[in-house]
Amino acid sequence: MNLNKCQTVDLPRINDPRGNLTFVEANRHIPFDIRRVYYLYDVPGGAERGGHAHKALHQLIIAMSGSFDIHLDDGYAKKTIHMNRSYYGLYVCPMIWREIDNFSSGAVCMVLASDYYDELDYYREYNEFIRDAQKVSP
């Protein structure tokens, strides 16, 4: 099951009275090179983001500020992860449908991605994703 590969990653923290520092190193803390970084912010109350899956893209999702919930679905099982610490990341492997909601006020969601944007890598329709996900044994 791909869902078991989606894990919370403890990122290094350097505590300092002047402010804390956390970093992410490709192929050390996450199992991929970072090709793209994007972030979600000013998400209106009640809004949902995500609502798609990727065929080949790997991602690390971090709550830089505030909190939100990430709902994961591999076509066989589902789980929800609450993100609310900037020193935790959620590794999401390919072939996982994800939806993000329950954004707190001022939340910032940063995503580190293994490749450049490619619309052909997306599943935008849940039924198409389920059809392909269930071709692979659990």
Structural notes for this entry:
- It is globular and about 50 Å long.
- With 138 residues, it is mainly beta.
- The protein is built from 1 helix and 12 strands, in the order E-E-E-E-E-E-E-E-E-E-E-E-H.
- A hairpin with a 4-residue loop joins strand 7 (68-73) and strand 8 (78-83).
- It has one helix at 126-133; strands spanning 8-10, 13-14, 21-22, 36-40, 49-54, 59-65, 68-73, 78-83, 88-92, 97-101, 108-113, 122-123.
- The strands form 3 sheets. It has a 5-stranded antiparallel β-sheet, with no helix packed on it.
- The model has no long low-confidence stretch (mean pLDDT 94).
- The N and C termini lie close together (5 Å).
- The chain is 6% helix and 40% strand.
- The chain has a single domain (2-133), classed as Sandwich (Jelly Rolls), CATH 2.60.120.10.
How are the SSEs placed, and which strands pair?
Layout: E1 8-10, E2 13-14, E3 21-22, E4 36-40, E5 49-54, E6 59-65, E7 68-73, E8 78-83, E9 88-92, E10 97-101, E11 108-113, E12 122-123, H1 126-133
Antiparallel strand pairs: 1-9, 2-3, 4-11, 5-10, 5-12, 6-9, 6-11, 7-8, 7-10
Number of helices: 1
CATH architecture: Sandwich
Q: What CATH first level would be assigned?
A: Mainly Beta
Mass-distribution shape: globular
Pfam families: FdtA (PF05523)
Protein name: WxcM domain-containing protein
InterPro entries: QdtA_cupin_dom, RmlC-like_jellyroll, RmlC_Cupin_sf
